[in-house]
Write a sequence for this structure.
């Protein structure tokens, strides 16, 4: 009968199975790949050149800002340039007088001090114009502008836009956000009991529901050194290989399996495991009689990772070292047991 239904028995094996740590977390981008677009000086938004979801390059014009302060700043620059030109001529004259013994040292010192102060003022005004995106050389040639361009600090995708045409944009309040998903990574929470197993460089398999549970590969590149709040969990950072080939968005929840190497563990063939009423069982050879008949006993186990046809198990009841189990055909025994139970009823 055993041969007819293809039942085989054997010992519980010790297998060197792949070990993993399960973790969950969220997708995120590094701070240098996420930018808030701000203005240094407030003003009225005259035009908006982008839409939410649009891809932009670094330096691209996003909006135009207008403020009378821009004109005043350029006027101050032109006045300072003019005054500096006069002071430069005066310094040259005082040097000539001093060389001829006709001037006084006090006058020369005063003119030199004025020259240095006005030169510093021009440098400062040029820096301010540069920060606003105004060409100082153009201003010096008389090209006064009333609007300045708000440009993209990084390349990426436009997020939520907080302004409308005609809005007064305040300094320090973000106008819009840009996110570059090219460097998107995963922040996983690993708990204290598993932390010693996790190391930089280990491979990670991610599963995202929006990718039809397709596994995505990655690698751990950083491990935080402090617990997150009171959760006793550590954030582990993992890069995603080929991230730009998937439709990944920061904030997506992921489930991950961290490959922490191999471990020696009790394992049985996949066919040795049967499931009944939500629990996993194996059949243990209980008695082999002289007439070659065999009796079996169903024993509950907890299953773990599976690999190459074997499943890791944890015994809930201790078994003898030489215990033999059903390695093939366990499902037939389960069906016979259920049929016997129905007959008894």
């Amino acid at each position: 009968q055993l041969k007819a239904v293809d039942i085989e028995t054997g010992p519980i094996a010790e297998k060197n199975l792949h070990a993993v740590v399960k973790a969950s977390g969220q997708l995120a981008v590094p701070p240098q790949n996420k930018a808030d677009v701000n203005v240094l000086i407030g003003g009225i938004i005259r035009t908006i050149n982008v839409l939410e979801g649009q891809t932009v390059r670094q330096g691209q014009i996003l909006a135009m800002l207008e403020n009378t302060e821009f004109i005043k700043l350029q006027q101050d620059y032109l006045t300072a340039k003019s005054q500096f030109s006069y002071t430069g001529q005066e310094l040259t004259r005082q040097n000539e007088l001093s060389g001829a013994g006709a001037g006084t040292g006090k006058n020369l010192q005063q003119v030199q001090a004025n020259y240095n102060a006005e030169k510093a003022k021009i440098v400062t005004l040029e820096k301010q114009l540069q920060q606003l995106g105004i060409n100082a050389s153009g201003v010096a040639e008389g090209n006064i502008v009333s609007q300045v361009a708000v440009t993209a600090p990084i390349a990426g995708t436009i997020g939520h836009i907080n302004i409308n045409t005609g809005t007064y944009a305040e300094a320090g309040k973000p106008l819009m956000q840009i996110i570059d998903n090219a460097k998107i990574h995963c922040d996983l929470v690993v708990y204290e009991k598993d932390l010693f197993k996790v190391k930089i460089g280990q491979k990670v398999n991610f599963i995202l529901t929006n990718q039809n549970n397709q596994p995505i590969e990655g690698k751990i590149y950083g491990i935080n050194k402090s617990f997150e709040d009171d959760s006793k969990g550590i954030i582990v950072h993992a890069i995603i290989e080929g991230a730009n080939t998937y439709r990944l968005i920061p904030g997506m929840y992921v489930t991950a399996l961290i490959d922490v190497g191999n471990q020696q563990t009790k394992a049985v063939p996949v066919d040795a495991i049967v499931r009944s009423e939500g629990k996993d069982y194996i059949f243990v050879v209980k008695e082999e009689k002289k007439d070659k008949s065999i009796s079996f006993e169903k024993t509950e186990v907890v299953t773990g990772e599976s690999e190459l046809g074997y499943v890791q198990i944890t015994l809930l009841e201790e078994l003898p070292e030489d215990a033999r189990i059903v390695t093939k055909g366990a499902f037939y025994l389960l069906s016979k047991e259920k049929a016997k139970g129905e007959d008894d009823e």
